[in-house]
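Retro notes, structure queue

What went well: the backlog is down to a handful. What didn't: a couple of records were mislabeled last round, so from now on we paste the full input next to the output in the thread. Example, using UvrABC system protein A from Streptomyces albiaxialis:
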Amino acid sequence: MSDEGYVRVRGAREHNLRGADVDIPRDALVVFTGVSGSGKSSLAFGTLYAEAQRRYFESVAPYARRLIHQVGAPRVEEVTGLPPAVALEQRRSAPTGRSSVGTVTTLSNSLRMLFSRAGSYPEGAERLDSDAFSPNTAAGACRECHGLGTVHRVTEESLVPDPSLTIREGAIAAWPGAWLGKNLRDITATLGYDIDRPWRELPQDARDWLLFTDEQPVVTVHPVREAGRIQRPYQGTYQSAKRYVLHTFADTKSATMRQRVQRYLVSADCPVCGGRRLRPEALAVTFEGQDIAALAALPLERLAELLRPSAEAGDAADAADASAGSAGAAGERSVEENVAATLARDLVSRIEVLTELGLGYLSADRPTPTLSAGELQRLRLATQLRSGLFGVVYVLDEPSAGLHPADTEALLTVLDRLKAAGNSLFVVEHDMALVRRADWIVDVGPGAGEHGGEVLYSGPVPGLAGTEASATRRYLFDGAENDGAGDDEGGAGDGSATRAAARGVREPARWLSLSGVTRHNLRGLDVDVPLGVFTAVTGVSGSGKSTLVSKVLAEIVADRTGGAVEQPGGGAGDAVGSEDGTEEDDAQRTERTDPEAGVAVAKGLEAIDRLVRVDQKPIGRTPRSNLATYTGLFDAVRKVFAATDEARARGYNAGRFSFNVTSGRCPTCQGEGYIAVELLFLPGTYAPCTDCHGARYNPETLEITYRGATIADVLEMTVDGAAEFLADVPAAARGLGALRRVGLGYLRLGQPATELSGGEAQRIKLASELQRVRRGHTLYLLDEPTTGLHPADTDVLMRELHGLVDAGHSVVVVEHDMAVVAGADWVVDLGPGGGERGGRIVASGTPADVAYAATGATAPYLRAALE
Ligand code: ADP
Ligand code: ADP
Ligand code: ZN
Ligand code: ZN
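Corresponding output:
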């Protein structure tokens, strides 16, 4: 084989790769397959992409060399024929802050330009710079809400939830409790207010003053006797409930305090900009009769419709110019019309690509934190199509994530177009429909971690049929599934065990009935969710599946079971305190206030005792959180070390072995093992600590060994390895066993949370849940649990989920994998389309009912899976 047209990799040893040699064609759609942990990403991202990146930096930015040196070059002997690469990954966290669909795609820039240059201005108004149309700039942001669109307010209802109480009884619930609360009541009495009359009987002006005044009168208080104790007179300062709540909310450093007062706040659209986030001057400018905020709030496909007339007018005029053959004709159109036509055409053509990728239901103002990883990756993919790059390798991580099988075709079209433009596509993928359509397959395996790391096959797809060791082969070729079943410990045959056909469809024990569900694109939906069975919610992207399951169902059941939605894990000792708080804040900020959101009637909630959500959100955002800390395993490990003779002799307790505690950790990296490196073009990257080289501990701590291993050695062990090493430590063995059952035996205990994929994070959460003793009836909610999973991994996961149902619980999943849907007891199919064209139930019933229903995008695919 000649070098021509191939990327040649020799001796790749990154992570678990075992000196892999492989030749991969350029200008082709190449898929990388293999079970989770087999080494696909280590080859595609860790070797090929990393090497391309390293070369790029060396060529353009000599100053970056030092940084590259720190990050480390991939462990590979030689790579030849490698073009520059662009990675579209899901793994690293999404951009946060104020980024939106519009900013990621740069559609916002064009829209602002359109308004600045071609908008209709009020008579006599000055033309505005395009910055003035951005809520993220000082020039554009509404002065009242600083461009956020919402303001936090207090109302009488929010501050006094029960007006039948007296002030002494705590009518003003928002006031602090205990001593400070009593002070305020005493001051109130001294000021002459009746604190023993029900709140609702107090005159309105008194109520208003007590709740809302900005005055802070100082009075001499002779404390009212409470509980028989007498106090001395003192000078007390009055503070209204509003003042107390708003100040605490804005100034407190305590997350708990903030959360407490947040309950008394209502967020509402900013009264000045009406939630539109911009200054009045900018909002006065219109295009086709609407302001820029209104256009940014439209689903993209509607925005394209609105812009199309301007774009086409431009086309017509251009055609006229061309046939007139003179420069003069253009002069008859105004400058604005020309600009409008150019910008509108550009916007329309870019939106068309997004619509093709099934994203036309998104609006430009949609904050990126509310997007799924799959949606975000496809947004970036579409943006690349316009970049006009050629001769590059695009390295993608499961672009089919979040896509209904009906949308996969469009994805292939886009990939084909990138290829036709002269690019190579290296895609880590699990969706066999997509894998079948590739030009070339690189199958890595046979197992995970140290049991993987070999290239089993590299060549055109049909050739894989002859590779017996491949786990992929069994799912890719009809008939091969049975051949392979006998000769391996666990994979193939088990898939059918979770199939409803093999097991028999379970009968629902009871029903949870919701009616009048209104949220996002769900408008007055009625839905019955069976309990005691496995339910799959299906539908094209944007049809409302996540809204129904992860928002509505989660919240209403959480409400009823008291308090927050439980997230498994969150490991005791080493948890990093503030993270949960910030995540909630993000959710708060990104969820628009929708006054109509809600559920009119909910029946059957009493049957559920507990709610558990197992999502793909990262289990932590810094390398400080890891597998061991999250699952609580690390507590058991630290106790083992603290119990050794040497540790006892030196007086080291379990805390000493925490890298979050000063005494035991490496002072240079403060126990992180890594140091954050800011690279210009990369999201935050971490380089190993120069002192402890990633060990995280100081030398004294590392002098303590257990069975010859230091605590840092244990963190380096895989789950499989640790299960053997700690087999006789019950507190550790239980958790390790659960992790192995969900197929994560290949992960290292100290694997930083930042290196885990969403699918891995989700299975870690599930494992934490499996190791618990469960009480009562639990409802488990999962959003696309198969993302990132090879079909063989999916089988393992499904076995565990069906086990929960067999134990008497209920499982509801949002899912696109038809093998999983076919194995469910009940299916709710939403649609028919995305966004405002979805939000209805197209069909529901057993998988067979839905498959043979005449309607819905899911039916044909489900039929194929059932046959
Ligand atoms: P796949 O993409 O096939 O799921 P990966 O390439 O992500 O597999 O992982 C292959 C092996 O390398 C696994 O054992 C994994 O735990 C290990 N690994 C992954 N990332 C890292 C890392 N940053 N450092 C060390 N080991 C890693
Ligand atoms: P699916 O899960 O079926 O892909 P979603 O429930 O995510 O669909 O979305 C359904 C509709 O609700 C879409 O029109 C989407 O744009 C909208 N939507 C989802 N989340 C939000 C949000 N946080 N803010 C505004 N609109 C949202
Ligand atoms: Zn405002
Ligand atoms: Zn260090």
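Agreed that this is the format going forward. Reviewer comment attached to the example: Residues 155-264 form a domain with the Helicase, Ruva Protein; domain 3 fold (CATH 1.10.8.280).
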